[in-house]
């Protein structure tokens, strides 16, 4: 699976918890949330559109930043 990086306009723990909730509901994802930089890095078989739509369910502004090469 590819790692995808997204911007999500998160300002607090509540925001990152909302992101965690929607991604767990989607399932099949491993992810890291970088709250200070407002980034979410997702490792998943789901396509970008699905992931972005899921992140937008939080009601936050979200956009796709690009693929992250596996370290």
Question: Explain this structure to me?
Answer:
- The protein is of the alpha+beta class and 71 residues long.
- It has a four-stranded antiparallel β-sheet with strand order 2-3-1-4, with helices on one face.
- Strand 2 and strand 3 form a beta hairpin.
- It is globular.
- The relative contact order is 0.34.
- One of its GO terms (molecular function) is copper chaperone activity.
Keywords:
71 residues, four-stranded antiparallel beta sheet, 2 helices, 32% helix
Instruction: Please report the number of helical segments.
Output: 2
Percent helix: 25-40%
Helix and strand sequence: EHEEHE
Shape: globular
Indicate the structural class: alpha+beta
The major pleated sheet works out as: 4 strands, antiparallel
Give the overall average pLDDT. Answer: 94
Sequence of strands across the biggest β-sheet: 2-3-1-4
Number of strands: 4
CA(first)-CA(last) distance: 13 Å
Estimated share of beta-strand residues: 35-45%
Task: Give the low-pLDDT segments.
Answer: none
Family: Belongs to the ATX1 family.
Pfam family, one: HMA
Function: Binds and deliver cytosolic copper to the copper ATPase proteins. May be important in cellular antioxidant defense.
Protein name: Copper transport protein ATOX1
